[in-house]
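Q: Could you fold this chain for me?
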Amino acid sequence: MKIAVYDTKGTEKEAKDVKVTLFDAVVNPALIHEVVVAQLADRRAASAQTKTRGLVSGGGKKPYKQKGTGRARTGSIRNPIWRGGGTTFGPTGIQNFKQRVLKKKRTGAILSALATRKDAVSILEKFDFTKTKDFAKVVEKITEGRKVLFVSDALNENQIIVSRNLQNVRICDYRNLNVYDVLNADKIVFIGDALVKANEMWGRSTVAQAKGAK
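A: Sure. Below is the predicted structure, expressed as structure tokens.
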């Protein structure tokens, strides 16, 4: 598999012939969908919260006598059926939206997602940028304004700081690849030895998957 290689100035060098099994998995759309839905659910924050009748202020006194008024009996103006009353079965702010996905399924989905980006992979020789503007120039040359996922061989604080303010740029460690970021990127750029390390970690699962399919 021939992969384009770029130096730290964004200049394309001679393509490198790399033997990897990382992108040879069979694409499974149903599995990808299942894992992406679970991943987005895990990111969901339970920020909405409503007050029950016990949390709404007021309503300590019975609004009118029990009988003789012709109205329905009630004990508090904070009854959920009254306007301004509490909310029944509303969001509490402590909901858990997490969905459990088996480790093998998650791995299979990552490999399937990577297989869809087989023709959009390149290598950046090293990451020695200290300023965002310098890195931005290289990103523009490599990606031409498209969404890109940089995969680091050893993610550090400097890489995070330099890349975090760039639009359409994500960076992660090769051990933390996830389906959503892979699919959201138009191009995947491996930094240094990240491709070799990722293949050693994830490529074994591809081989096992191929053997199981036979």
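A (continued): The first helix runs from residue 29 to 43.
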